[in-house]
Amino acid sequence: MEKLFRTSPDLKVIYVLVRPKQGQTLQQRVFQILDSKLFEKVKEVCPNVHEKIRAISADLNQNDFAISKEDMQELLSHTNIVFHCAATVRFDDHLRHAVQLNVTATQQLLLMASQMPKLEAFIHISTAFSNCNLKHIDEVVYPCPVEPKKIIDSMEWLDDAIIDEITPKLIGDRPNTYTYTKALGEVVVQQEGGNLNIAIIRPSIVGATWQEPFPGWVDNLNGPSGLIIAAGKGFLRSIRATPMAVADLIPADTVVNLTLAVGWYTAVHRPKSTLVYHCTSGNLNPCNWGKMGLQVLATFEKIPFERAFRRPNADFTTNNITTHYWNAVSHRAPAIIYDFYLRLTGRKPRMTKLMNRLLRTLSMVEYFINRSWEWSTYNTEMLMSALSPEDQRVFNFDVRQLNWLEYIENYVLGVKKYLLKEDMAGIPEAKQHLKRLRNIHYLFNTALFLIAWRLLIARSQVARNVWFFIVSFCYKFLSYFRASSTLNA
Ligand SMILES: CCCCCCCCCCCCCCCCCCCCCCCC(=O)SCCNC(=O)CCNC(=O)[C@H](O)C(C)(C)COP(=O)(O)OP(=O)(O)OC[C@H]1O[C@@H](n2cnc3c(N)ncnc32)[C@H](O)[C@@H]1OP(=O)(O)O
Ligand SMILES: NC(=O)C1=CN([C@@H]2O[C@H](COP(=O)(O)OP(=O)(O)OC[C@H]3O[C@@H](n4cnc5c(N)ncnc54)[C@H](OP(=O)(O)O)[C@@H]3O)[C@@H](O)[C@H]2O)C=CC1
User: Fold this and answer.
1) What domain of life does the native source organism fall in (predicted)?
2) What distance in angstroms lies between residue 222's CA and the mean position of ligand 1's atoms?
3) CB-based contacts of 209: which residues, under 8 Å, 6+ apart?
């Protein structure tokens, strides 16, 4: 919406389907977004932006999205272009819910779109990982072994227990219900698009903005953002990842630019078949998890997060044994010790729960950070060459120009500012806090070493001999040093 208003101030209206949430009405939710820093530039070119957004109450879990008759009438008669982004993106969602959101709702939206007389294009947002069971992925819709229609029907009469049982068989070699249902959603789009003018966009891992409206903007914990927080606050100490695997991140503004360009191309050129566009970075400008991780850590040195639990010092592990070892030593043990301290001081323990949640998240993303994929980008490159030089500049989605180190630094800064809502003025105090944590760390390790050594000396003659040898060696060395300095004087 931000980019559309900024580049097309003459635009009449954008209808957004929204559900009320957390005690906020639709209008409040939309106005909260419009009043955020993200929309500051828009307001300069389009001061009446509030009047150009029509929030329509809709819930994708309901029949006809529970849209009122009047709203439906207005939507059907006025819409020129549909951008379908809503989805459940939870990796662990129950199959019934994931099918409802990512498949059935897509089918219903297509039905609605077929009744829109002024519709020029229908743009469906999928994910580059919808076919992550393949290594090389082309810009085509791949068939699914079981027809989406059969899956939709079966969800109506199967009970939860049976669905739980068949889920692993249905998702096959995909890692979760999210990627599986996004793949089904694509097949539905292709099979039930009828005469509509449709395109599918497949972004990889969406990160903070690169340039627009300003670098580093991010507003959710999806993808790496949540884990950057966990690392910066010192909770995340080790992560099972392959440093050389490609980190196929794509900035949010790049996805937006490509989406708008696809909207234009689909409406104006009306391709005969449904085109799929990969919005990925790996084949044009690859970055790997090792490089990304190091830059994230380097940025924490310059711009630390406030009130960290421990000093940020995460590392990659590459096998099961080391992963279990570091999970026990660096994740679970400090959480148990801290909770013990909280209990002793009369407070409610919370660290073990938080750590368990983090470990669960890590286990879910492991699949994606230990493999590399190749996505072909012929359609995306074709689109780039179809744009005028001016549009190539305004709707830039050429990731070859992206400087990863600069991007990652801005990403971490954006996480601090826009997700954690921390003030830059707090950086000196955050650095002091990290120094205190470092001193506590040294003190703790020294105390631990001395206790262990004392116990060893009490129990072992060999340890006592070694200790005697070290002490007498130090004494002799000091005596020699003192004698030689007296002679020199
Ligand atoms: C050599 C040096 C090495 C140095 C290492 C340095 C490390 C630096 C960090 C870099 C890490 C890089 C890791 C990259 C990870 C990449 C992920 C790749 C994913 C690719 C997928 C494909 C992309 C897509 O197509 S779509 C979008 C992907 N979807 C998601 O990302 C959603 C994932 N989330 C979930 O599925 C769930 O939230 C789940 C299962 C993780 C957690 O579920 P749970 O029920 O436990 O919690 P919630 O109810 O969801 O939330 C509770 C609570 O937690 C907050 N939260 C939610 N998500 C996250 C998160 N990802 N991280 C942290 N916290 C999260 C949420 O806001 C809630 O907070 P409340 O305060 O309780 O409200
Ligand atoms: N993040 C990523 O890395 C990637 C995302 N994608 C795709 O991009 C799209 C957006 O994802 P992302 O922004 O990350 O995820 P979000 O969860 O932030 O966005 C999903 C949107 O869908 C809406 N939604 C979910 N359920 C319903 C419902 N029952 N009724 C109405 N609206 C609903 C949500 O509304 P509400 O705000 O009310 O919850 C939310 O605005 C998805 O299609 C996803 O598959 C693709 C590749 C990568």
Assistant:
1) Eukaryota
2) 5
3) 215, 216, 217, 218, 251, 252, 253, 414
361's enclosing H/E stretch is: helix 351-369
- Its ipTM equals 0.92
pLDDT tens digits, 383-427: 999 999 999 999 999 999 999 999 999 999 999 999 999 999 999
Show the DSSP H helices in 208-332 as ranges: 225-232, 252-269, 289-302, 320-326
**Residue 453: what pLDDT?**
87
Residue 478 has pLDDT above 90, yes or no: no
From the CA of 187, how far away is ligand 2's center (Å)? 19
Distance (Å) from CA 443 to ligand 2 centroid: 46
Q: Does residue 291 contact residue 404 with C-beta atoms inside 8 Å?
A: yes
Question: Which residue from 160, 172, 171 is spatially nearest to 97, judged by alpha carbons?
Answer: 160
Give which of 86, 90, 103, 87 is closest to 151, Cα–Cα.
Answer: 103
Ligand located closest to 24 CA: 2
Helical spans, DSSP H, in 35-176: 40-45, 69-78, 95-99, 105-113, 148-157, 160-171
Average pLDDT along the chain:
95
Ligand 1, atom 51: nearest CA belongs to which residue? 357
Q: Among 83, 85, 182, 221, name the best residue to mutate to test ligand 2's pocket (greatest count of ligand atoms within 8 A of Cβ).
A: 85
> Which pTM value belongs to this model?
0.92
Ligand 2 neighbour 19 (Cβ under 6 A): yes
Give the three-state DSSP class for 477.
helix
